[in-house]
Amino acid sequence: MPSEQPLRLLLLGPPGAGKGTQARRLSERHGIPHVASGDLLREHVQKETELGKEAKGYMDRGDYVPDDVMIRLICERVGRPDAEGFILDGFPRTMPQANALSERLEELGRPVDLVVALDVPSELIVERLSGRRLCPTCQRAYHMTYEPPADDEVCDEDGTELVTRPDDEADTVRHRLRVYAEATEGLRAHYDEVGLLVVLDGTGDPEDVSERIDKAIEAAT
Ligand code: AP5
Question: Which helix or strand (DSSP H or E) is residue 34 part of?
Fold first, then answer.
């Protein structure tokens, strides 16, 4: 059910924290776009665009794609007419990205209402990512134990055969967690200082995590 006031929310958290899972639910519930930086990049990789060719090496290694590329991609997306409200998943990840986003949203008159950071311990993340399967058509993520598709290895939405993400291999996951700790964790302090941050426990059932996020949204809007 779309709310009267379009929600503008950023989701922060390490790889596998459940950002995509929660963003998809929030997007359906609030009738606003789920803007996922990783999904947008994977679409470019799949279509073999220039941007996709540039991004692929970084993504496969678990490194961040350069800020200028990411800023162009996301600042264009949040300016589209359907983005009066949005759930931003995976962007920003660095201070230059955060600054560029806030300038762009100010220019658009679309300020962020809330930044939700999901906390999940590293050992649980490795387990979540080793069981993840992704639909290459609609980008929906499943987990073979926690959120399995109705039919083995096939997407519920469009029947496409599910795949494993190349960057979900255990060594790459550990590298991604290090990159996150070095480059992104500091963003929490920034959003805390500007009074937008809520840190939530991202463990437990996806429905329980959704309830925590809903309560935080109610309190903030
Ligand atoms: P991206 O696709 O954004 O990857 P990520 O941040 O590493 O996050 P994930 O998609 O791995 O995890 P998630 O938190 O969305 O978890 P999910 O809901 O799927 O980015 C990929 C790459 O692109 C980056 O490494 C980088 O190279 C590049 N990139 C992207 N943005 C960039 C930026 N801004 N700057 C620079 N480079 C950028 O859940 C994970 C699994 O757990 C699923 O199987 C799910 O079913 C399961 N699950 C979810 N919630 C629960 C729960 N509560 N209980 C049990 N299982 C659960």
Answer: strand 34-36
Nearest ligand 1 atom, CA 134: 44
Report pTM. 0.94
- Could you tell me if the CB of 140 is within 6 A of ligand 1? no
Task: Give the model confidence (pLDDT) of 125-162 as tens digits.
Answer: 999 999 999 999 998 999 999 889 998 889 999 999 99
Ligand 1: distance of its center to the CA of 159 in Å?
22
Q: How far is the CA of 102 from the centre of ligand 1 (A)?
A: 22
Among the listed residues 184, 142, 183, 189, the one whose alpha carbon sits nearest the alpha carbon of residue 162: 142
